[in-house]
Amino acid sequence: MPVGNLKNTLYGLALPVLGRKSGCRRVAGEHESQAAVKKALVKHHVVGASIQCFEKGRLTTQLTAGYASLEGKRPVEADTVFRTASIAKMVSALLVFRLQSMGALDVREPVSDFLGYRVSNPHCPDAPLTLGMLLNHTSSIVDSPAYFSSFTDAVDLRTLLEDPRSYSRSVPGMHFRYSNLAAGMVGCMLESRFGMSLETLMQKELFSPLGIQATFDITKLPLEKIADSYRVLPREKGFSAAQRMEKAAPLAEPDPRRHYLLASGNLFLTAEMLARLALVICGSHPGFIDDQCLSLMRTPTADWPEQDVRMRHSMGLLQLEDPSVYARPLWGHQGFAYGAVNGVFFDAEGNGFAALNSGAAERRRGHLACVNEALIGALMPKME
Q1: CB–CB of 366/304 below 8 Å?
Q2: Cα separation of 167 and 263, whole Å?
Q3: 141 has which bridge partners?
Q4: In whole angstroms, what is the distance from residue 213 CA to residue 199 CA?
Q5: What mean pLDDT is predicted for residues 125-133?
Q6: For position 225, what pLDDT does the model report?
Q7: Where are the alpha helices (DSSP H) in the chain?
Q8: What's this model's pTM, rounded to 2 decimal places?
Q9: What number of H helices and E strands is found in the chain?
Q10: Which terminal residue of the chain, N or C, has fewer Cβ atoms less than 10 Å from its own Cβ?
Q11: By the 8 A CB rule, do 92 and 115 touch?
């Protein structure tokens, strides 16, 4: 992923010549902005996409285009399932606040109380470190080389948390630093507290009550419905559903030592189901998550360091408040992984969209993906 203005500029210059061409020459579905959506998908080299729109808290049009898999030219359909990447963090936060609404936990609780062993930043060992800090990325826990090595060489969470390299020198709660490890720890903490796997807890307390078909367990899915992911530049296959399925083990049992790679990005669902979850944050299910918890999700606590587009972060959500992108504040999340560039965005009136794809140009303006900026311009209501 190009990070920084120089890399984004070079990426943009190389894209028309070296980048993979878009597969979205035709967009299925009826929408007043269909031509603008097609233009955005083609311009940003989207391989295949599913977009679910909603207005005033209700689902409206679904648009599909391009390929879920380039091998065999399998098209994206309404029921194509995508790996969401970091949008899973928003959904994990929804589960946390559902559980808090039920009185089963509190985001102010120390991480140590969930895991059953002491967790503290060795650079400031007396500073409290809470669940809420993990959700808003102010915990001081960072993605260290040891964390990245754990992708291939399994290591216990406790071992990672005892490694000083897993912490910045910031006092917990004081400074924003995006951390996949911190977000992934949430799943381990919930498994430890409730004695069931994150997958089981999600199904029991969030997905089933809302009628959502989604899973963190790829082994539950039909392979022919899962989208692969492709990098546009350089041209390579980033995610193979078949290979992931072959290596995957069911997630029926809890494993608080090793399940820190789930809550941060390993969710699979359709664009429609993602939109339905976003509508919960918009207030579509009054009382399911109480007003205080919804306010905690929607209230920003820290700025993203990239200043090109004004974005802030709260507990599980981004807030985009930049008139150069849209006239009103938007909430949501993005997901970048294996070439996919996903996004879900909505305003205070319950208007928005969920967009999942099988690969797109990864160019960004600040932290905002250019493809998501283009879709906001095409799909969000025009202000008078």
Answers
A1: yes
A2: 20
A3: 167
A4: 12
A5: 97
A6: 98
A7: 5-18, 34-43, 87-101, 111-115, 131-135, 145-149, 157-161, 180-194, 198-202, 208-210, 241-247, 271-281, 291-298, 370-379
A8: 0.97
A9: 14, 17
A10: C
A11: no
